[in-house]
Amino acid sequence: DSPNALEIEIRTIEFLGAAYRAQLGGESLNGNRLQGDFSVNLMRRLGLAEGSRFRIQLPQEFLHLFPAGA
């Protein structure tokens, strides 16, 4: 198992023009949520939509955490 790897689900998606903003959840987040921005091309190529489940890895050197509402 890879460090910082999580099984997540896309809960909601908002189209922003050049990208989509997704609210991510799942059991591995213990009730917390993540927000991710995905390019239109990536969403199409991977066939991602609300309800899609997949595994992500969050490399420590690229993690930046902000409090909700910041």
* Percent helix: 10-25%
The side-by-side strand order for the widest beta sheet comes to 3-2-1-4
Along the chain, the helix and strand elements come as EEEHE
Q: What is the makeup of the main sheet?
A: 4 strands, antiparallel
Total of DSSP H or I helical runs spanning 4+ residues: 1
**Overall number of strands:** 4
Low-confidence stretches: none
Cα(first) to Cα(last) distance is 32 Å
Mean pLDDT, to the nearest integer, reads 90
Strand content: 35-45%
Compute the CA-based radius of gyration: 12 Å
Per the principal axes of the C-alpha atoms, what is the gross shape? globular
Which structural class do you get from the secondary structure elements? mainly beta
How are the secondary structure elements laid out?
Blueprint (H helix, E strand, L loop, with lengths): L4 E11 L3 E7 L8 E6 H7 L6 E5 L13
Antiparallel strand pairs: 1-2, 1-4, 2-3
Describe the structure.
The chain is built from one helix and four strands. By secondary structure, the chain is mainly beta. It has a four-stranded antiparallel sheet. The longest helix is centred in the middle third of the chain and has 7 residues, at 40-46. The chain is globular, with a radius of gyration of 12 Å.
